[in-house]
Amino acid sequence: MVSQYHSELIVKVAETRDKAAFADLFDHFAPRLKGYLMQKGADAAQAEEVVQDVMTTLWRKAHMFDPQKSSASTWLYRVARNRRIDLLRRDKSSDMDTDDPSLQPEAPPDVSTAMDARLRESRVRLALKALPPEQEAVVRLAFFTGLSHSEIADRIELPLGTVKSRIRLAFSRLRSALEADSAVDVD
Predict the structure, then answer these.
(1) In the chain, which segments carry CATH 1.10.1740.10?
(2) Where is the RNA polymerase sigma-70 region domain (predicted)?
């Protein structure tokens, strides 16, 4: 779903140096990565420095991304985590806490967990396709392209209340469909 969209954007950056795809990736991931890094203990300036480095790496090394091995977000968050560790190691004046959980190696992904995630994703994708077209369209605009409700209303020339109503109805239908599916935990 969303991760597939972002993976496709990284592939575009790798293959054609698509600046619009890169801009979409930057707009989506830069604030999230900064928040993640600050949550892990970086101050705002350090977080911004690492995010800039991560996004530069994305531009230069997009060809190294393999959508079969990980999602776009997993890849970028891993690069951010590794860059933060590099920054901490370089900063000799920093008192690095070797017990900091964010500095510990990540456990390799569990195969069954990855398979469960793919199954859930395919079930959610099917439920999304079962929505009426007007509801599917607003959900895709909101969650795949990251548009705000107001931006969606402007783009498809509908009142804001109609957009919000369609999203609410879509989520209600998705929840009902997914609650009936034992493979998807909706809580």
Answers:
(1) 2-103
(2) 25-92, 127-175
pLDDT reading at 187 higher than 60: no
SS3 content of the chain, % helix, strand, coil (to 5): 75, 0, 25
E strand intervals along the chain: none
What value does the mean pLDDT take over residues 6-19? 86
CA distance 54 to 80: 6
**What class does CATH assign to 2-103?**
mainly alpha
For CATH 1.10.10.10, list the domain ranges present in the chain.
Answer: 111-179
Average pLDDT over residues 9-13: 86
Model confidence at 8, in pLDDT bands (50, 70, 90)? Answer: confident
The CATH number fitting domain 111-179, selected from 1.10.390.10, 1.10.260.40, 3.60.40.10, 1.10.10.10: 1.10.10.10
Whole-model pTM? 0.50
CA 131 → CA 46, 62, 78, 143, distances in Å? Answer: 43, 34, 34, 15
Residue that is written with structure tokens 């009142």 in the block:
159
Residue 110 is given by DSSP the state P
Q: What's the maximum distance between 2 C-alpha atoms anywhere in the chain?
A: 58
